[in-house]
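Narrative of activities, Objective 1.

The group set out to show that a structural description can be obtained from nothing but a protein's sequence at a throughput compatible with the screening campaign. Below is one input-output pair from the validation batch, recorded exactly as produced.
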Amino acid sequence: MRGPRDESPDRLYTLTGGRARSGPDTPFDLVTLVVAESDPVPGMQSEHAAILRMCRRPTAVVEVAAGLALPVSITRILLSDLLGTGRISARHPRTSTATAHPATPAYRLPDPDILEQVLVGLRNL
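Output recorded for this entry:
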């Protein structure tokens, strides 16, 4: 596990280019799953490169923030940068990849009747 990083306001300001928030239309909440769509490239900001390495498999925003040892608000800004350049895709675990790929059909929750039957079956065990 990595030790705590310098969270001085100067460092955080530098990481985000002075931005205090991610864009209003960014899809990131704590459980949004992030997946890298490319590998890091030379010259890339080290935090962006670290995110791409961490997110080779779907990783929640909160896990990315913990891995970077940065506040979630700062992590969201960094993720917005990568999303804007197409280096990551993001989706909420309760939706399909339709957020990132509009052509994909929306995820449907299981039929409530089937869930009720499963619940009854579990109670009967």
